Amino acid sequence: MSARREHGGRRLRLTSLTIAASGLLALLIGIAFAVLLWAIADANSSTSARRASRSALVEAEGMERLLLDLETGQRGFVITEREAFLQPWQVAREKLPAEARRFTESTTSSDGRHTAEQITRGIASFLNDYSVPLVEGVRHNDPAASGLAKATEGKQRVDTLRAQFHQYMTAERAQLAAREDAARANGRRAVLAACMGLTASTALVAVFTLLQHRAVVRPVRRVVTAARQLAGGGLGVRVPSSKVAEIAALGASFNTMAASVQDNRRRIMESVEAVHRRTARDLHDGAQQRLVSLMIGLRLVRELLPGTERTVADLLDQSIDNAQTAINELRELASGIYPLVLTVKGLVPAVRDLASRCPVPAVVESRNERRISTTVESNAYFVVAEAVTNAVKHAHASRIDILLDFAGVLRIRITDDGIGGVGDAPVGNGMTGLANRVAAFDGTLVIESPPGGGTTLLIRIPVPS
To answer: Alpha-carbon dihedral of residues 57, 59, 63, 66, nearest 10 degrees?
Structure first.
């Protein structure tokens, strides 16, 4: 059973919860940034690849132009046999080695490099095996150089090379388009992943903020409110338990402090009540009895005096009146400290006696009347006495109704027809002492006091068995 209670009593620790939430938030943000960095790196890689593909296309176009310059230059020379028409052929021949090297190195794939090397070899073969011998043959007036077979061979070589160029550039353009499509797709995925990461991070922050508000801010506010109520006399206020260990410890400490203050208040009131009871008993059994005996003795002396001794008789009459006044005042003092009827007969007769001495009409009604703990009876009596005093002094009431109900717990309802407007906060409205008495015994006090509508006090005090 104890193990089960320990398991059921486990609480969240605010430090662990904060570390877990912070770690998860850092993980989400790290993932989002990692995705963004990957997207940036992929974009840079794609940009470099596209730049390389464009460079390969430019070099291929330059190589093809050299081939065309070789072919057009030799054709013009063969037709005219003039060296001026051979100038483009000579320029292209000089540029060919460097251009061929750049063309081969600019390839972006192994297949492309193989094709580029094949094209380079084909152009070198065209130049060395066909074009140069043809030019030399024309220069030496070789009839075979201007024959149909040579012209056909040259056209076939150029067409084959141009077809290879077309195949090479088509493959490069396709590869460039594929890389651009992949880059766009990767960029969209990266943006989507980053948005999801940031959204999840924002949601986590919102959830953690809400959790902190519910688990920390709200309980702390309850503790602050309870502390204000405790400072205002609400000794019965308690803070509910929390699922967070640190807040639960704070609430438990506050409840322990409040219970200690309430117990101290109760013990003080019980001690004061005992002192009042003992003082009232001492006054009744001691000084009051001696004054009564003194008054009786004075009356006997007065009766034994002859009627002719008027001066002594008047003095005795005055002493008897003073003694009776002292007895009445002492009885009132003893009743105010602790009424004897409360000890002898109980709460209801004591309240009826209080009502009979009230300067305004006061009606007392009781239900399920019975004797209860003397401590509770004393506390309830002085609660009623303070409420009646407040109604007479502050509410200017012309009638007071008092109901005492002993069913289960002691319920007291005190209603007056005064000016009202007391409000729910007893502090500063003549109700502080009353609220402290009720709270000291785990009781509750509810005030209904609309302005101009009188005041009703509803008091509930637990009755120990």
So the answer is: 120
The conformation of residue 345, written as its DSSP 8-state character, comes to: T
Sheet with 400-405, strands from edge to edge, namely 362-367, 400-405, 410-416, 455-461, 444-448
**Contact call for residues 441 and 380 (beta carbons, < 8 A):** no
Per-residue pLDDT tens digits for 71-113? 888 888 888 888 888 888 899 889 989 998 998 888 888 888 8
Output phi, psi for 405, to 5 deg: -125, 120
Task: Please return the burial class of 90, using the count of CB atoms within 10 Å of its CB with bins 0-12, 13-18 and 19+.
Answer: middle
Find where tokens 């963004």 sit.
36
- CA 436, 402, 379, 266 torsion: positive or negative? negative
Checking DSSP bridges between strand 362-367 and strand 400-405, what pairing results, if any? Answer: parallel
Residues near 147 by beta carbon (within 8 Å), at least 6 away in sequence: none
What would the pLDDT profile of 187-243 be if each residue is shown by its tens digit? 787 778 778 877 877 887 888 788 777 777 777 887 888 787 777 666 677 878 777
pTM > 0.85: no
Q: Which of 261, 169, 230 is nearest to 427 (CA)?
A: 230
Instruction: For residue 65, give Cα distances in angstroms to 21, 158, 447.
Output: 65, 12, 105
- CA 255, CA 226: separation in Å to the nearest integer? 10
